[in-house]
């Protein structure tokens, strides 16, 4: 593979629906963690519920596109309420424990053979995107975007995906600039102080959990839409931790952070993979086999992230001034 | 001894002419330890009342109970004739009973101005759905910001307006916390050790602010270890030891009370006498 091929792969990854899926989950996590201070380690579950809710509404209930989107959203909101109601009155760590456990439980439940008639069990669900692709306004043919060539359906998918990112970013931007957002930031700093000022902290935390979870549900729907396959293995803990990585890479209490963080993360991952493949094929790295490249790229990305966290802990867009006070 | 605050002689649990807060039989146990065991106490309206006592006397726990930050084992209390037992802390605050904390809780990564704005009540934009429609709350915001600026000026924090609260000194944070508490025009302000850690140069201005509160008709209840401050500004002093109220009265009278002198003021006014002091109170009785 030549350099041009590598770059076009990376560029494709930069705007792919999978990247967008993670970006949306990271924006949701920014609402949870960056603005409210909630430790949610189960963001994969919110995305999974969006994806499963959507697919089940289409395939099992025979609903139309909008009904299915709404159902996916309601599933994620219900899950947020279910987790939040008992734990948000407790200390922050309890939410972390409950979310990580609930996400695992959910993944095993939808993948179990008992649930097969509804969720497709371990094979998951597929071919639920017909009504979405039927709305495609782009005429058939290939489209060249820079050095990437896409089909009309792929273009449609990306346009919708980035439209949702823009909407989510504006939505969160408007919220965080409002007095409502100010209360959230206050809760992040010290919830007892905010309580003493007459704010119903529990209610705000629950609202934040539901809103961040809803944004992740959109992420989940977009994540599975391009391939039209939704499997339980998509939603493992690594999904949640990649989301966290993206958030911290970009800056936790920012809106552009998760977007750029997600793009950089996946472009970097592709660049490293392709670059390593070229080097291994050229015999420069005799100690590596070509099959090991896929694993070793995560190792290198991890190293880069470590350096980033050490030398730029506020992420790309975080406010350096804020970090100085945390030391 | 006659005074214009209590009905009859000043003694632990005495009735007041015009109480704003009345607590009955409030107890709180931590395991085997009884931290608070208050039979009856009334806080006089429009006065500055000091709550004093050696470390571990249960002053802060009593504060936490009254403001809904902790739940008592038994007891009830009324504020403005309204039963407050079991009312969550944020509702207590909305009723006009605002507290501060012993360990200052400035919201570090919010600006000083945002800290102040958060103290205001009735900002419509704090509701999720209204947050999106700026005209619904921009008027409120203007009013709140104006008030915040006035208070910041009064507390000499106006030059720090745009700074993060984390950038303030310990004393300035105390000032900010007090100013923030005043944003909602509270009827009863409860200050937990307002002087702790404050530079002596700032002490006088803090004292003046507390006296101003009284001038404006606000009731003040504060916990303090600094006896000069207690003597200087309080109208009434309540002494706690081992969770119980052991003495009450005007400062001059309480400071003469042999039990209190032995326990707390005496020759070792500045040292913490701890359990020895409490034993002496028992003997004094």
Brief sketch in words of this structure:
The complex is a heterodimer of chains A (327) and B (285). Chain A has 15 helices and 4 strands.
Please tag this protein with its features:
heterodimer, A: 327 residues, mainly alpha, two-stranded antiparallel sheet, 70% helix, globular, B: 285 residues, alpha/beta, six-stranded mixed β-sheet, four-stranded antiparallel β-sheet, 10 helices, 10 strands, disordered C terminus
Tell me what you see in this structure.
The complex is a heterodimer of chains A (327) and B (285). Helix content of chain A is 70%, strand content 4%. With 327 residues, chain A is mainly alpha-helical. In chain A, α1 packs antiparallel against α13 and α2 (17-35) packs parallel to α8 (152-176). Chain A starts with a helix and ends with a helix. The model of chain A has no long low-confidence stretch (mean pLDDT 91). In chain B, α3 runs parallel beside α5. Classes of the chains: A mainly alpha (327), B alpha/beta (285). The interface between A and B is large, with 27 and 44 residues.
Number of helices of chain A: 15
* Major sheet summary line of chain B: 6 strands, mixed
SSE order of chain A in H/E notation? Answer: HHHHHHEHEEHHHHEHHHH
The beta-strand count of chain B equals 10
- The shape of chain B, in one word, is globular
Percentage beta strand of chain B:
15-25%
């Amino acid at each position: 593979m030549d350099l041009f091929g590598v770059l076009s792969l990376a560029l494709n990854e930069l705007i792919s629906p999978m990247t967008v899926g993670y970006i949306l989950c990271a924006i949701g996590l920014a609402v949870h963690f960056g603005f409210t201070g909630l430790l949610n380690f189960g963001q994969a579950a919110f995305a999974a519920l969006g994806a499963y809710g959507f697919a089940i509404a289409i395939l099992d209930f025979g609903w139309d596109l909008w009904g299915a989107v709404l159902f996916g959203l309601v599933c994620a909101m219900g899950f947020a309420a279910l987790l939040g109601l008992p734990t948000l009155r407790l200390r922050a760590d309890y939410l972390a424990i409950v979310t990580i456990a609930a996400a695992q439980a959910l993944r095993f439940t939808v993948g179990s053979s008992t649930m097969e008639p509804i969720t497709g069990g371990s094979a998951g669900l597929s071919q639920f995107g017909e009504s979405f692709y039927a709305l495609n306004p782009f005429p058939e043919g290939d489209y060249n975007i820079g050095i990437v060539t896409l089909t009309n359906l792929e273009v449609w998918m990306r346009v919708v995906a980035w439209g949702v990112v823009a909407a989510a970013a504006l939505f969160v931007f408007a919220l965080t600039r409002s007095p409502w957002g100010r209360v959230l930031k206050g809760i992040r700093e010290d919830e007892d102080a905010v309580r003493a000022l007459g704010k119903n902290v529990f209610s705000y935390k629950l609202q934040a959990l539901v809103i961040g979870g809803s944004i992740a549900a959109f992420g989940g729907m977009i994540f599975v839409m391009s391939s039209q396959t939704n499997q339980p293995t998509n939603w493992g803990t690594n999904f949640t931790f990649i989301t966290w990585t993206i958030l911290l890479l970009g800056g936790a209490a920012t809106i552009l952070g998760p977007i750029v963080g997600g793009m950089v993360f996946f472009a970097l991952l592709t660049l490293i993979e392709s670059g390593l493949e070229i080097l291994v094929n050229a015999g420069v790295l005799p100690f590596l086999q070509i099959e090991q490249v896929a694993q070793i790229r995560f190792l290198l990305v991890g190293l880069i992230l470590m350096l980033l966290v050490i030398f730029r802990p506020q992420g790309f867009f975080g406010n350096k001034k804020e970090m100085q006070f945390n030391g | 001894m006659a005074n214009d605050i209590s009905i009859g002689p000043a003694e632990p649990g005495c009735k007041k002419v015009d109480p704003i807060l009345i607590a009955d039989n409030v107890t709180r146990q931590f395991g085997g330890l009884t931290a608070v065991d208050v039979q009856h106490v009334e806080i006089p309206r429009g006065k500055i009342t000091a709550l004093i006592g050696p470390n571990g006397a249960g002053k802060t726990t009593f504060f936490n109970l009254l403001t809904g930050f902790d739940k008592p084992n038994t007891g009830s209390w009324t504020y403005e004739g309204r039963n407050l037992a079991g009312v969550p802390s944020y509702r207590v605050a909305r009723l006009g009973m605002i507290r501060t904390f012993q360990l200052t809780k400035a919201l570090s990564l919010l600006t000083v101005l945002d800290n102040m704005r958060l103290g205001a009540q009735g900002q419509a934009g704090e509701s999720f759905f209204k947050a999106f429609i700026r005209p619904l709350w921009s008027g409120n915001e203007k009013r709140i910001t104006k008030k915040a600026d006035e208070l910041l000026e009064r507390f000499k924090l106006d030059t720090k307006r745009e700074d993060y609260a984390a950038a303030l000194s310990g004393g300035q944070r105390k000032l900010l916390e007090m100013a923030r508490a005043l944003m909602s025009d509270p009827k009863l302000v409860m200050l937990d050790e307002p002087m702790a850690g404050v530079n002596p140069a700032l002490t006088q201005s803090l004292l003046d602010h507390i006296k101003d509160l009284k001038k404006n008709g606000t009731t003040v209840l504060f916990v303090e270890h600094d006896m000069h401050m207690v003597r200087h500004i309080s109208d009434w002093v309540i002494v706690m030891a081992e969770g119980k109220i052991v003495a009450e009265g005007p400062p001059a009278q309480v400071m003469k009370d042999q039990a209190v002198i032995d326990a707390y003021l005496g020759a070792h006014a500045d040292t913490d006498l701890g359990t020895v002091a409490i034993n002496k109170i028992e003997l004094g009785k």
